[in-house]
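Pipeline run #58 for the internal structure catalog. This entry was flagged by the ingest filter as a single-chain record with no existing model, so it goes straight to prediction. Upstream metadata was stripped on purpose; only the residue string is passed forward. Reviewer on rotation: M.T. Logging verbosity set to normal.
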Amino acid sequence: MTLHSETIGFIGFGNMAKAIYKGLISNNQKLNIIFTEKDNLVAKKIEQEFPIKSVSKDTIYKTASIIIIAVKPQQYQTILQPISNKKPNLIISILAGITMTTLEKQLGEHVPIIRCMPNTPALLQQGMSGISFNKNITEQHQEIAKTIFEGIGKMKVVPENVMDTVTGISGSGPAFFYQICHDIAELANNQGLSYEDAIQFAAQTLIGAGHMLLNSNKSPETLIQEVSSPNGTTVAGLQNYKSNQVNKQIQAMIQAAITRSKELSKHN
């Protein structure tokens, strides 16, 4: 099962679907890709922007061997239909809060399903995706998933029962980091540094720190110690961080997102 020999059908073609599409074609692969959008005007605009064809939902189910479901979670019941023929042989869902059990009830228990939680940096091929497999996924399917999601950044296979945690950390995480950078930039602006320059300092520091965490083989605690000098600026900031229990506030923010993700899953 290779992408070159498959027809890939997108149900919904919003920002995340566009990111996946761009990741797919970034390797200069000649792929057969189709999509469906409920709004005909939106579909026409997409056809003008990308060299792909708009088709009906029924055509997607009849002809696509890989279907990527990329609509809003509230719309999932209107676009899913039982699969009884040989196509598609792989369903990839990026529906937030919709479990594979729910999808199996709609599509059929025999259907291979991959559930994915990407995040918006995928738009720049810098995303982080958590993916889970149902019991019907083969090694070939896993290779397909790797090809697709490594095209938009990094990916990690996780059990579905931690997908809500992944949602809280990396699905919602970019917005939390944006908020933190904004707060830093506002403070810096009040101290005389321009807001724009402060955003650049904060964002690049965030990128650099991320690379250190991923590539230095050192724990966060060790890296913190390497930045900290006795009675220095870093220690002063960290003491305030601890005395104000900022750690608990950050954890509470993430926990709120995780809790909401679990609530959405239960309602579906």
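catalog note: The chain has a mean pLDDT of 92.
catalog note: Residues 246-267 form the longest helix (22 residues).
status: ready for reviewer M.T.
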